[in-house]
Amino acid sequence: MKGKARPDAHFTDDQRGVSREYPTISFDLFYIGKRVSGEALIEVASDTKEKVICLAVVDSFSRSAQAIPVYNRADARLMGKDICRFINFLGYSTVMLRCDQEPTMLRVQGVTKEILKKMGCRVLIENPLVRDHASNSYVESTVHRWRQMATVLQCAAEERVGLQIPVNHPLMAWSFVHAAWLINRYVTRGGMAPFEIASGRAYKSKICEFAEPVMAWVYVTPGRKGGTKWEPGIFLKKRPSNDMFIIGVNNVIRLVERLAHEQAHLHTSLTVFSWMVEIKGSKLLPRVQGKPPEPVADEVASDEEGTPDDTASDPPSGEEANQETVTLSLPEAVMLKISKAWSHL
Fold first, then answer.
1. Which of 57, 118, 169, 244 has its CA 20 to 30 A from that of 89?
2. 66-114 per-position pLDDT tens digit
3. Are residues 104 and 77 in contact, defined by beta-carbon separation less than 8 angstroms?
4. Sheet strands (E) in 198-262
5. What is the CA radius of gyration of the chain?
6. What integer pLDDT is reported at residue 336 of this predicted model?
7. C-beta atoms surrounding 53 within 10 Å
């Protein structure tokens, strides 16, 4: 027994998620690394160990999923708010939250539960055993599909531009966000895509290639008729709620309704990551925090013990764990918008 015994096996059950009365929202962190061998969009060291941190959220009923890249894995407020937006889009009034019993994930679960209760949503909690990462199979399989789809998007963009996308470029994080969006609408299971199961209709709107140079419609008010109506930008993704295009124009992000193709080299000027902006209604606003989130003390201890993250093939090292309190440096244009917004308050 001491030398050959094994823990209980985890068997695949496709009906486990839909056989329950309430949907289960599973989530966990995973990490993205990449080696760059040729010329890149921005300068990056050949031996860099920098990684993109991303939260995977999966619904057991519709199999819908959402990727939430974050700058700091201790930012539970950001992840909790985006999880609530995902649940609100699905239209559930009662949900069951499931995550690993790690300090960071339990903190995100608590924030999500608090926000959902204020929204009038009933919340149930069901977490697996401690260090039983294999029981969160929904997230495991979803992250595997995201990695494959995001790699395809990155390779297509690199062939178009002629330069490689390093891990610290904003397009790396945006590729996983768009990969989740594509899988929700075009990858079917049982003859229906997750979007069709959740909304009751098939997705038939127009779409562009990821990181494709386009002309974005930015003409809003008819007051200044001599101004330009179209500006060149890069297509990043589409917003789930109202299907508007999210375009990167230099170092700012815009929500637009119309697009026209344009051949331009705009990828090197993009400096806005997905976690720097927040969508409220039909407006795209910069995220403003009074102070950086406090790191979870037990998280560093768990990393030193060698506890593997279930979906993270490259868990953060001790040096990366100590960098959780580093403040976010926003681009100059974003900081200018923030200062103007505060001046009107």
1. 169
2. 999 998 888 899 999 999 999 999 999 999 999 888 889 999 999 999 9
3. no
4. 213-217, 230-238, 245-249, 252-256, 259-261
5. 21
6. 53
7. 23
Q: How many other C-beta atoms can be found within 10 angstroms of the C-beta atom of residue 89?
A: 15
Q: Spell out a b/e string for 328-343, using b for 16 or more CB atoms within 10 Å of the CB, else e.
A: eebbeebeebeeeeee
Q: Which amino acid is at 141?
A: S
Nearest by Cα to 268 from 154, 160, 159, 165: 165
Q: What is the side-by-side strand order in the sheet with 122-125?
A: 65-70, 52-59, 24-32, 94-98, 122-125
Alpha helices in the chain, H assignment, sequence order: 76-90, 103-118, 137-161, 170-186, 194-199, 297-304, 318-321, 332-343
Render pLDDT for 133-156 as a digit per residue (tens, 0 to 9).
666 777 888 899 999 999 999 999
Residue that is written with structure tokens 């768009």 in the block:
178
Residue 170, class by beta-carbon neighbours within 10 Å (0-12 exposed, 13-18 middle, 19+ buried)?
Answer: buried
Q: Is the pTM of this model over 0.90?
A: no
With 0-12 CB in 10 A as exposed, 13-18 as middle and 19+ as buried, what is 186?
middle
Which CATH superfamily includes the segment(s) 24-197? Ribonuclease H-like superfamily/Ribonuclease H (3.30.420.10)
Residue 65: the pLDDT is 93
In the chain, where the domains are located: 24-197, 206-290+330-343
Q: What are phi and psi of 199, to 5 degrees?
A: -105, -15
- pLDDT at residue 220, rounded to an integer: 60
Please report which confidence band the pLDDT of residue 297 belongs to, taking 50, 70 and 90 as the band edges: very low
Residue 90, C-beta contacts closer than 8 angstroms, at least 6 positions apart: 23, 59, 62, 64, 198
